[in-house]
Amino acid sequence: MNNQRQTPDRIAELLVHVGRAACSEDRGSSLTAAQWTCLRFFARANGSTRTPSGFASFQATTRGTASQIIKTLEGLGLITRQRSDRDQRSVRLDLTETGRATLLEDPLNDLINVIGQLQEDERDHFLKTLSRMAYALAGLRDVPTFGTCQDCSHFTPANGSGYCACMASELATDDIDQLCASYQSTTPGVLPKMLIKGEPDDQE
C-alpha cells in the first residue's frame, strides 16, 4: 500500500514548515530571519569568507540585498568591518561583543536543542540525508556549496592544524571548523559535515 505520508511533496512542505517555525520572528526579536542568518554566518565563516559577497553567496541573494542586511546589523552595533589582512582593498566583517551576546537569544537555538535530544545515530543519519539533499539542490540551481576545512580537498592536516592549498597558507586550529566559500568536497556528490550543535552556547 502506498504510504502518502512519505511522498516528496509532503516531506518538502514539512522541511519548509520546520525552517519557518525555527526562524520565527514572533518572539519579540528586533531582528528578522535574514538578519539572524547574517549574524550566524559571520560567527561561523572564516576570515576570507566573512565578506559581503561571501554572505550573498551563502544566502543565495543579490549583493545589494546582502549589503542592506549588513548595514542594518552594523547600525545596531552587532557587526563591524575592518580591512582584510590579505588584501587591503577588501573588508572583513566580524561580530562585536554585542553581536555575540545577541546570538545567545537566537531563535534557532530551540531547534538546536530539539535536534540535540535525538539519538546519536538518528542525528548522523539525518545529517547525511540532509547533506545529500542540499548538495543536489545546489547543483540544480548552480549555486556554491559551503563547508569546513576538515571535509575539503584543499585541506592537508598537520600537527593538530593544517594547510590550505587554495589560500596557500597555514591554518589556525580554530579555522578548521569555520565555513569557507572556497570549499571543495573530497567526495563528489557529498556535502560537508555541518556540525549540529547541542547547546546554545556553542553558537558563540
Kindly name the structural category: alpha+beta
* Number of distinct helices: 7
Can you summarize the main beta sheet?
3 strands, antiparallel
Alpha carbon gyration radius: 18 Å
Order of helices and strands: HHHHEEHHHEEEEE
Helix proportion: 40-55%
Strands, count: 7
Mean pLDDT: 77
Query: Low-confidence parts, pLDDT < 50 over ≥5 residues?
Result: 189-204
Note the beta-strand portion: 5-15%
Oligomeric form of this entry? single chain
Strand order of the largest sheet: 4-5-6
Could you please describe the fold and organization of this structure?
By secondary structure, the protein is an alpha+beta fold. Helix content is 42%, strand content 12%. The protein is built from seven helices and seven strands; from the N terminus they run ααααββαααβββββ. The strands form three sheets. A three-stranded antiparallel β-sheet has the order 4-5-6, with no helix packed on it. β4 and β5 form a beta hairpin. α2 packs across α4 and α3 packs across α4. The longest helix has 22 residues. This is MarR family transcriptional regulator. It comes from Marivita cryptomonadis. One of its GO terms (molecular function) is DNA-binding transcription factor activity. Keywords: DNA-binding, Transcription, Transcription regulation. InterPro entries: HTH_MarR-typ, MarR/SlyA-like, Tscrpt_reg_MarR-type_CS, WH-like_DNA-bd_sf, WH_DNA-bd_sf.
